[in-house]
Amino acid sequence: MTDRTGTVVSSGGAPPLLTASGITKRFGATRALSDVDLVVAAGERVAIMGENGAGKSTLMKVLAGVHSPDAGSITLDGAPFAPRSPDDANRAGVSIVYQEPSGFPHLSVLENLWMGRQPTRRGRLDRGAMRDEASALLDRLGLPARLLGRKMGDLSLADQQQVLIARAISMRAKLLILDEPTSILTATEADRLFALVDQLAGEGTGICYITHRFDELERVADRFVVLRDGRNAGETHEADREALLAMMGSSGEIEVDRAGHLVAETSTTEAPTGGHGGGAVMLEAHGLTAHGAFAGVDLQVRAGWISGLYGLVGAGRTELAMALFGEHRIDAGEVTYRGVPYRPRSSRDALARGIAYLPEDRRTQGLLPHMTVGENLAAASLAVLTRFGVLSRAREAALVKRWSDDLAIKAQGSGAPITSLSGGNQQKVLLARLVATEPTVLMLDEPTRGIDVATKSEIHRRVRELAAAGAAVLVISSEMAEMLTLADDVTVLHEGRVTARLSGEQITEQAILRAATGVAA
Amino acid sequence: MSAVTVTGPSRSPALVALERVQSLLLPALLIGEVIVFALLSSRFLSADNLVNVAVNAADIALIAAGLTVVVLMGGIDVSTGYAVGLISWFLATLMSSGTPGALTLIVALIGGALLGLLNGLLTARLSIPSIVATLGTSALFQTALFALWNRRDVFSGPVLPFLSGSERAAGVPLMLLVVLVVYAALHLVLVGTRVGRSVFAIGSNVEAARLAGIDVRRVRLLGSLVLGLLVGLAACTYLARVGVVQASSGGELSLLAIASVVVGGTSILGGEGSVLRTLGGVVFIALLENGIVLAGVPSLWNGLLVGCVILLAVGVNGAVVLLRRRSGVAE
């Protein structure tokens, strides 16, 4: 346990399994963690809480050897622990299981369990030993042994997650970190996971559990550690919602939205565009199907309106948006744009018509890492900046100035490398890239993933302004708070099918989650 | 844009140092090479010899210019050498049957364009990795040349006077001017046009470029076409230089062109570089080839040195990329 002066004291008399003290981690100028302390005892279940950007994941990644801290020290079982890689941490007994399963989809469960440390006999894989040990392990964890021969990619997300937990256990994990494990699980699957967690804690494994869901708190944790803006914000043994919310609140601007989900925004309560139903339907899909991704989807995006598209990992939301953007195959169904049939062919075609898409993954799908802020911003506007093939530097500079001012992008001039910007400002550049094309339909896929709270509310405000100015906006998000604060209506996808269409008072966390996990039709 | 001093990830001292090494690599190699060869041979720095070097390097220079465009997009072409050989056979055959020079030049350009488009279609259209596709076409071109050659060397002179080494204006070979015009033109296209910007965007992050509405396939195809045209032109200067087409003519050019590009400092992973850097790389490689001969070193050493220099340049480039990734400065 940690008192407010930052001194680390042992939890409940038991010798601590893991003690992290004074952990500081910077990413450029952003301080993700400042002087954070954490103690976990053997067999203890600790929930790590805080809003997005509070530093939960960064702290866990420091423990798991993904990031090395800039300051601070960690001990594991009383010995200094400074993992240089996830592999290092694994060997020492600290394993992490991510929100989205990260195994090898083309290999069998057996091979996944043993990846990187296969037993050998005279230089050959000892398949017998692998199989025997693995079945004993699955048996102990209450998982069916028939899983072993199946391909990882064929399993449900819940089963994949359990295999990864089993893998962690088989590496003799003393501390198991679970990063929002239930966000992709149905209620039954979550219960199975909780039982497994209890069993492991009973056997002496320390558990760190990141969650956003208040409803599962009491079920999963003995102690609740709250982070805020990268610092310790307090901790408690009581699953007291009000007290936890108060600890988590960012800079006193905490608000609780209509579903009781915390939101750190001053503008939360101003419902975006009001319940007037929006303007004309700009983009509409009917029975849209792409085998293996989504099926029979109806969707409308209206002018002056923010539609939400929610779904868990693998629900097909990104594929759907990419299809409307001309970058994913469509097997059946119809799309109309401004009331006229429209067959999306390519992103170039879509952009030229006024349909813009902000990709889900900033790094792999958005940024041009070798290029400047200005070049990144202007990348989708080259056609209007060009005459007879020649780029007009003056017009480019004007465009870049206009939109970087508009979005208040913080950079050392438009000639600065894009990689010199913070994540939030990079995201603003990518948004500016789209807005600069002056689109009529704006599809934003996880527009604020992994960026700081201040920039997040700036982006939210700008998105509302765009809608108010007449843009038809579709926000895709796996973040509940974003759906609840931003969307005028919410379409929920579950395994590629629409399971709910909610508007006004119907938009609640419970309703969205039920639909997203396929509980309600 | 608000003025803010610090923002994103910081560069580690090791990365800063290595980036300096990378930018100083070519100048250091050039200076070292000139000093060593000047000491070993008094003729090395004579005007005559330098003009000679320029004339002899014209084919590599032309290929490397086009290759830079392809490499900037993250591609590669290992078939250029045998493409030159194959086109040269047709040129020599046409010329020995009395075809006028202007016509043979057109044939060379069309031939180069066709071979370039073949590579372009395989890589841009069918999405075959460029190293595999061009290894395949290289074998194809080599075999075609061998079959056409059919144990009969074809002798020939220069296609057109200004593509031969002998034609001078104020002592400067016209061929050198042709090369410089090509470099200047490509440079202007790369830095000042929509296509040029697209080339860098594709090399930086092809997925992001596509989602930003850039026609990746068309730009890639265009890059292969430009390389093909320059390969055709290089066949003309090659033929003027060697005067005869044999079973494996041109084969040695592929590696030298690639070496020029990477030693120049264009990233083999794409997104970073310029044709002007490549021109520096060409000068280095050309002086190396020439200096070794003048110094009386067995030509076996030539390959060794070229190989080492490629590995050095690519190694430094790779280390920079690795450190950038580690310090979170993206790619």
TrEMBL record, chain A:
Give UniProt keywords alphabetically: ATP-binding, Nucleotide-binding, Repeat, Transport
- Does the keyword section mention Repeat? yes
Indicate the secretion signal residues. Answer: none
Q: Which SUPFAM superfamilies match?
A: P-loop containing nucleoside triphosphate hydrolases
Boundaries of every ABC transporter domain copy:
18-254, 263-520
UniProt-listed Pfam families: ABC_tran (PF00005)
Q: Is Nucleotide-binding a UniProt keyword of this protein?
A: yes
Q: Which domain of life is it from?
A: Bacteria
PROSITE patterns in alphabetical order: ABC_TRANSPORTER_1 (PS00211), ABC_TRANSPORTER_2 (PS50893)
Q: Name one GO molecular function term.
A: ATP hydrolysis activity
InterPro entries, alphabetized: AAA+_ATPase, ABC_carbohydrate_import_ATPase, ABC_transporter-like_ATP-bd, ABC_transporter-like_CS, P-loop_NTPase
The identity of this protein, by name, is Monosaccharide ABC transporter ATP-binding protein, CUT2 family
Q: What is the phylogenetic placement of the source species in the record?
A: Bacteria, Bacillati, Actinomycetota, Actinomycetes, Geodermatophilales
UniProtKB/TrEMBL annotation, chain B:
User: CDD domains of this UniProt entry?
Assistant: TM_PBP1_transp_AraH_like
Q: Where are the transmembrane segments?
A: 20-41, 53-76, 88-118, 130-149, 169-190, 219-241, 253-271, 278-297, 303-323
Please provide one cellular component term from the Gene Ontology annotations of this protein: plasma membrane
Q: Which GO terms describe its molecular function?
A: transmembrane transporter activity
Which InterPro entries does UniProt cross-reference here? ABC_transp_permease
Is Transmembrane among the key words of this record?
A: yes
Q: Which keywords are on file for this protein?
A: Cell membrane, Membrane, Transmembrane, Transmembrane helix
Pfam short name (any one): BPD_transp_2
Q: Say which domain of life the source belongs to.
A: Bacteria
Q: Where does the protein principally reside?
A: membrane
Show the coiled coil region(s): none
What membrane topology does this protein have?
Multi-pass membrane protein
Q: Spell out the subcellular localization from the entry.
A: Cell membrane
Q: Which PANTHER family match?
A: ABC TRANSPORTER PERMEASE PROTEIN YPHD-RELATED-RELATED, RIBOSE IMPORT PERMEASE PROTEIN RBSC
Q: What is this protein called?
A: Monosaccharide ABC transporter membrane protein, CUT2 family
